[in-house]
Hints:
Helix 5 (109-115) packs across helix 6. This protein has a domain at 75-233: TIM Barrel (Alpha-Beta Barrel). By secondary structure, it is an alpha/beta fold. It contains ten helices and eight strands. It has an eight-stranded parallel β-sheet. Helix 7 (164-173) links the parallel strand 5 and strand 6. 44% of the residues are buried. The protein has helices at residues 15-18, 24-41, 60-68, 79-92, 109-115, 125-138, 164-173, 192-205, 219-224, 234-237; strands at 50-54, 73-76, 97-100, 118-122, 143-147, 179-183, 210-212, 229-232.
Amino acid sequence: MSSSSNSSATPVSTPANAANSDSVTVRLAQVRHAVSGACAEAGRAAGSVTLVAVSKTHPAEAVEEALAAGQRVFGENRVQEAKAKFPDLRGRFPDLELHLIGPLQTNKVKDAVALFDVIQTLDRPKLAEALAEEMAKAGRRPRLLIEVNTGEEPQKAGIRPADLDGFVAACRETWKLPVAGLMCIPPQDEEPAMHFALLAEMARRNGLAEVSMGMSGDFETAIRFGATHVRVGTAIFGARPYPAAG
């Protein structure tokens, strides 16, 4: 399902100025225009990229505004936050598609399988096994993306590139999981293009159609390198509202 616009491109709001834009509706339109423009520059159809609006930490009212503007694909980082926010919205918007884009603990697998349509953060064998068991029990099979630690950063989750082919094979053959693609978050201090190119090549090599890469600051580059899904939060919803300390 694609949420891109077919309109001509206009500059996207950057994280620095997104919070000053008029509304979620205005910012969403700007991002859609930018996605469409990046697709055109890359010689790709606008509908080939799905915009995942990352609504983590933002209230249900902000999501409702995006829904009213036609957005249907959303990303959340935490199972509990999504569980509190989305069941009512899904009741009113049954075509809503929800992606888990944050780390998944094995004790949250039951809720995740019940709630999400796509889980983008499959990152270890223990989680693969837990997902396979829960999918068999629940009779529900959300699409899965394997998170790849393209920068091999020790503090980050994800499968290392050297281990990726073997893990894909195990997910398919041992656990019979519905693996649809790959996801990555490049290191903050490195040029993202080389990581996007690596992820796209690994997906191609393994016959995986979906490539989730690119966020508010670099999604246009990601589209140039073949992203099928871009995860955009700040440029749509503005700065994240964190509770005050104390």
